[in-house]
Amino acid sequence: EVQLVESGGVVVQPGGSLRLSCAASGFTFDDYAMHWVRQAPGKGLEWVSLISWDGGSTYYADSVKGRFTISRDNSKNSLYLQMNSLRAEDTALYYCAKDMTTVSYDAFDIWGQGTMVTVSS
Amino acid sequence: DIVMTQTPLSLSVTPGQPASISCKSSQSLLHSDGKTYLYWYLQKPGQPPQLLIYEVSNRFSGVPDRFSGSGSGTDFTLKISRVEAEDVGVYYCMQSIQLPRTFGGGTKVEIK
Hints:
The structure holds two protein chains of two kinds.
Chain A: E1 3-7, E2 11-12, E3 18-25, E4 34-39, E5 45-51, E6 58-60, E7 68-73, E8 78-83, E9 92-99, E10 108-111, E11 115-119
Parallel strand pairs in A: 2-11
Antiparallel strand pairs in A: 1-3, 3-8, 4-5, 4-9, 5-6, 7-8, 9-10, 9-11
Chain B: E1 4-7, E2 10-13, E3 19-25, E4 38-43, E5 50-54, E6 58-59, E7 67-72, E8 75-80, E9 89-95, E10 102-103, E11 107-111
Parallel strand pairs in B: 2-11
Antiparallel strand pairs in B: 1-3, 3-8, 4-5, 4-9, 5-6, 7-8, 9-10, 9-11
């Protein structure tokens, strides 16, 4: 069974840092690009970041560029999101999601259950 | 960034009746490779989004055939031929022709 399990979400103060993790199983992890998508409480979906299958290319939403860093460890089938200089508006449920294709970057076919990040003093 | 606009904001549907959701993009989603990169997701209450339709009209694995997608260019529609109780939730369209990926604001479907 294809599965993504996020962890690392906590309550953190504004200006603080946090690292989210996503453990993948049930598919060949290093064949696929991976994404982070977030959802603020009661709001819609916002794409956050993308990393290529080998980690060589990364992309970010303008709202997090320069503060967040996406990475992956293919030997551990794991995806990460390092979040620095956190702001109240970063409060959201963070999902990791698997890209649909092995040949480029596309939409997401599998999502994790999400991990909640709350930025509050 | 490509802006995705969904209508209506919400729908209340009698079981067994059809439902339709519109999604318009600010730019064409037709790629030079001939594919149109428009997707539909359903987020059921308390769950992550699940993929329903990819590339305008292709049902994802396990998606019932009462769901269908259509459209081209900048104008797209998701139709549910006969709404069932398990179809409640928020429906989102999304484009993947360019970064950043962008979603419509969502359409909440409820059962009457």
